[in-house]
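For consistency, the fold was encoded as tokens, which produced the following:
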Amino acid sequence: MWKPVLLGILAALACCADVADCACDPANPESMTPRQCSLCREAEKHPADAEFFFLKDNNPRKPNRWLLLPRSHKHDGPVTLHGMTAAQRTRIWEAAIRRGRELWGDEWALAINGDKVRTQCHGHLHIGKLLKGVDLDRRFITVRSVRDIPLPKDGTGLWIHPVGRKLHVHLGEQTCETVLLR
């Protein structure tokens, strides 16, 4: 009886990479070979002057998911949004929302996972369709503008979705992308 539980715990731990101490260095391609550096390798394929880029999630279990990534590696690691200026954060949120609306109308949502569950060292936002029936009463604040979206604290993530002409920002969670359609 205890063996399946132990195997489940080990499998869950194996899927989560420790990205806090990632040693990726774009000047040293060999340092970017670990799985948790795959988005860093992808960023290197884009022009250096690109601020952000979109990428279809390559996980076959997430066929409806898109990612938005900063091109720069200076936003890598657990403090992606914290390393950006307010203007950069505004631009990335606006770009992600535009893509979400193009794909799913008013049913879009954005998510950033917390530090404890991230599996990639290169910062990124998940763009997807908000699942029907998601508990929308969980902790959230209402904001009128992307400029008012707060930075996550204590290494937690956030997820955002539209409600009328405003946004609900759900804070204080680690695993946030699960509110999005796979």
In short: The CA atoms of residues 68 and 95 lie 8 Å apart. The longest strand covers residues 166-173. The radius of gyration is 17 Å. Confidence is low (pLDDT under 50) at residues 1-17.
